[in-house]
Amino acid sequence: AQPGAAAPVAAPMRDLDWGQINFLHTTDTHGWHGGHLQEPQYSADWGDYISFAEHMKAKADEKGVDLLLIDTGDRIEGNGLYDASDPKGKYTYDIVREQPIDVLCTGNHELYIEDSVRREHDITVPNFRDAYLASNLDYIEPQTGNQIPQARRYRKFKTKNQGLTVVAFGFLFDFDRAANNSVVQKVEDTIKEDWFQKAIREKPDLFVVTGHVGLRMKEFELLFKVIRQENWYTPIAFLGGHAHVRDFRKFDDKAYAIASGRYMETIGWLSVDGIKKRAKDSETAIAAAASPTFKRRYIDNNLYGLHHHTGLNETTFPTEHGRNVTQMIAKGRKELKLDQAYGCAPQDLWMNRAEFPSNASVFTWLEEQVLPAIATRDDRADVPRLAIANTGMIRFDIFKGAFTVDSTYIVSPFISKFNYIQDVPYSAAKRVLAMLNGGGPVFSAFEAGSALDTRYLVSPEQWAFAERPQVANAAAAAEARTPVHLQGDGLQKPLGSEGDGSGSKKKPDLITGYTTKDDLGDDGDDTEHEPITFYAVPNCVQSEIAFPAAQQDGQGGEEPDKVDLVFVDYVQPWVLTALKFSGGDYGTDDVAVYRNQTVTDLLAAWITDHWAGDCGAK
Ligand SMILES: O=c1ccn([C@@H]2O[C@H](COP(=O)(O)O)[C@@H](O)[C@H]2O)c(=O)[nH]1
């Protein structure tokens, strides 16, 4: 961990159960390989993870069992260590490659823009060679225009200590916003391919299906069915991601799936025991008799826990390799000047730990303070306008104190700009927000998972929560100003900060954090936590800017006839569709760029202007 990260507080710990084959799993690290500098409970870095894995491998060897390392994508975008360099990832590709990952795959973030697709092909795939799997992803070679597999489709191998035969895949969900130099094949089509049909007939002792796929998404369901149909008794371990949550799903008593959170907060632990080695090539009675057990832990990524699980301490834990990688991270952060402050945040602003609207909500801040200031341009400053942003654009809370170069990318890593349609009749424009937020039938006609699924406007954390019955229409309720909140399944919280405002009486020795409930129960987290309340927020927020002034007597101003409809470009497909249904028939030709800077750069400029100060640093 970086020097200066406070020591995590002692907390009640749950141990790891070992099986014949064990997995350490990271997913959706989004460039947070330097760990969380403002949150000690997630402050271990990729170097510490390397030390941890080395010790755990030695333990596995002692026990005569196997340990595999898995990463399920979205390694990029979301932290200055990746985003602040030019080219992006100048430091992180070298840092990530230091961990000898056994199976890794691609996330949707590796595919948003052509440059990152190319870097994945030219850097990460060769870095990991046979470990990199691309079961449903192709690359378009720039020199030839040929469509080739981004990496190998699957991998069959024998484990080191148990000699188990494993067939592993690496999938991505049916992502349809990939850059033009990549092609994502739908999982339903991939499973018809000859190579896949051959792979599921390889008769291994265990299938390992890795994927940048939420555990409750249809893609894993489909893969489970097709593999199980051909292999009645073979254990299947799924390792997924994308939803940014901790989760464990049972498909049947021989097939389970783990998801290991986000942003290097969590190292997932999955163990499988009771695997019977197959006699030669057949589905034998022995295999049928096998009754594997699957266990899971979600490890809070801090040194206190990593020491606990290895039985080591501050002196004995760091390996030379791990320490070197921690130094690489510190060097990269320094060269990128990530700790340089743009300003000083006067208070904490929460994504889902505060109700919307409220003074503690980052989205109220965005709607009331930021959008009116940045969704503007000199030549149209007096034109009344509506400015719309999706809440998924904001990726992380803002903590009181220094708002740094790093914070900018942590809060909003995207390269989106503001687009606009000018002179839209207000009668049509004013109906757009409600439709985006789930009011009316417009978007309900689109299939879940399709390009216009409005879930894609919010953070993955929220749509994962929204799949639970008690928050089925979370975004609509939030828009209607009905607070929707869930106890538990908490997100991050800096150690040492005060209560969550719920007034709940806390056990003195628990700190707030994840309290995961999954298909195996509520004892998955390696650290017992006090729960955090999760409040759903709307899909989009909107500011009215330069509207006719309110009258002296306190009455609202007149409605404008026409407005500029300004929106973050990511939201454009939804905005155009909503406009069609509200009487404004516009197409992409009617859309123009409103401002040339990215929203992230405009946000940084707003911080500099409005939160000036160094937080009292000497
Ligand atoms: O340009 C973009 C791209 C994505 N988003 C938001 O992110 C989620 C997807 O998050 P994952 O970590 O990435 O896959 C998407 O649903 C959008 O809400 C965005 O706002 N802008």
From TrEMBL:
Residues 348-576 form the Putative 5'-nucleotidase C-terminal domain. Keywords: Signal. The keyword Signal applies. GO terms for cellular component: cytosol; extracellular region. GO terms for biological process: nucleotide catabolic process. InterPro entries: 5'-Nucleotdase_C_sf, 5_nucleotidase/apyrase, Calcineurin-like_PHP, Metallo-depent_PP-like, Nucleosidase_C, Pesterase_C1039, YHR202W_N. Residues 22-245 form the Calcineurin-like phosphoesterase domain. GO terms for molecular function: hydrolase activity. Pfam families: Metallophos, NadN_nucleosid_C. Residues 487-528 are annotated as: Disordered. This is Calcineurin-like phosphoesterase domain-containing protein. It comes from Neoarthrinium moseri. The lineage of its organism: Eukaryota, Fungi, Dikarya, Ascomycota, Pezizomycotina.
